[in-house]
Amino acid sequence: MIIQYYVPMLAGAERQLATVAPRLARAGLDVHVITRHAPGLAPFEMIDGVSVHRLASRGPKAAVSLGFTALAQPLIRRLRPDVVHAHELLSPTTTALVAKAMLGMPVVAKVLRGGLLGDIDKLRGDRLGRLRLAAISRWVDAFAVISREIDEELAAIGVPPDRRVFLPNGVDVQHHKPLDPDAKRALRASLGLPADAPVALFVGRFEEEKRPVALAELWPAVRAAVPGAELVMVGRGALAEALGDSAGPGVRLVGYHKDVTPYYQSADVFVLPSATEGLSNALLEAMASGLACVATAVGGAPDLIRPGLSGHLVTPGDERGLRAALVDALTAVGSAEMGRAARHKVVTGYSLDATVEKLIELYSRFSPAVDVRRPNTATTPAHRAR
């Protein structure tokens, strides 16, 4: 696995890999994560059965990327992996393709985000990026596709269907699940949330692309239509101070929480007003927790949410539409039914177990060392697919 950052730095892509990689290791694969070094972290450590290699590369941004690619090559040569899985089309996939050119191993690339600011959009920004994109479209053996939006973008640059594999993010549906009404009331009391007023939840980075300030500024209009409604915002980021200035009555900023489960289980509605997304882990977790969801129609949200059945989709930047959808979700008698439909969607198509099984099946296309029929028979790393 090649990824920009890994544990303990846990944005969306890192969180997903940090849940998937240990399960692959328990299934019998010898999993190595190659990532960038960060201050205070060891160059190598074992985390949940996964070997984590952190490479230190310094200098300007371009030099750091080139340095990472160069430093990774001796390590990849020593590991001799059966498959290299790059997470993002930028330096991780470039690093993987350089290794493929020298050693010949197959490369799987996961596109982390489509649309505005997505992987392909960034590469199209300059001539060198377009040359890289042409090489990626030609030489990557398979693309792990997390949304219809990304699949369409890959098709547009000439990637044939047999190299586009639908492999969405997964969520632990046993950990993320709804509570019965009595347990939910008790949990709300422990968190200091109102017993009877409706509660909406935002979980994500406090960055411009997630639009948290716009959401907080919108809340007085929502609260005017739904008296007492609370908006709980979980996260951290560059806009934390601006968000604090924008948060009025009914907006509760609770900071970063490693485990957001109690907030999912105590809320009524989940809201994600992003300008751009890949496939939001927070949206998956909220749906698994049985919440009706209001989200902008970007990234994987249109694949997940069926308007009127499991939630509401709105156009990015449409503040009036977002307000109307939130008011409807917070007051609708059918919101609980929407939540049940949302959970059913995730349980049947986006469970973490299903994601791991699909990954093993994909790797087995390229390596006979990956035995999908007997994943736990390997006893030592020497006998396991790397």
Structure in words:
The chain folds into two domains: 2-170 and 351-383, 3-Layer(aba) Sandwich (Rossmann fold), CATH 3.40.50; 181-349, Glycogen Phosphorylase B (Rossmann fold). Helix content is 43%, strand content 16%. The chain is built from 15 helices and 14 strands. Helix 8 crosses helix 13 (319-331). The N and C termini lie close together (10 Å). 43% of the residues are buried.
Short description:
By secondary structure, this protein is of the alpha/beta class.
Ends apart, CA distance between termini:
10 Å
CATH architecture of the largest domain: 3-Layer(aba) Sandwich
Helix content: 40-55%
Just give the CATH class of the largest domain: Alpha Beta
If you consult CATH, what is the topology of the largest domain?
Rossmann fold
- Succession of helices and strands: EHEEEHEHEHHEHEHEHEHEHEHEHEHHH
